[in-house]
Amino acid sequence: MSKYLFIETRDPFDSTDVKQTWDLAVDLSKAGSEVAYFLVQNGVFATREGAKTPVLEGGNGITVYADDLSLRERGIAEGALRSGVTVAGADKLTDLIMEDGRKPIWT
User: Are residues 19 and 11 in contact, defined by beta-carbon separation less than 8 angstroms?
Assistant: First the structure.
């Protein structure tokens, strides 16, 4: 089984490419790959409960992380996140990048 790590930095409300990246992650997950999706910088805007974005929809089986520093810098509290999002720091991102066999895709 292949393992992927998507690192998304872009705001889903400013860049239409974010949905294409998310759709690729969903397709890989549906094909049996292990997929982690790590949101940093403006990518964390998609994590807010009630955010009207197709990103993070239909991603059953994808582990979604939001960078703790990025959330704090943007004033997004952990209690304001949609369900299924795990808050994590740079240490978790480093662990995922260094994991044997995992392919990182930075967008």
Answer: no
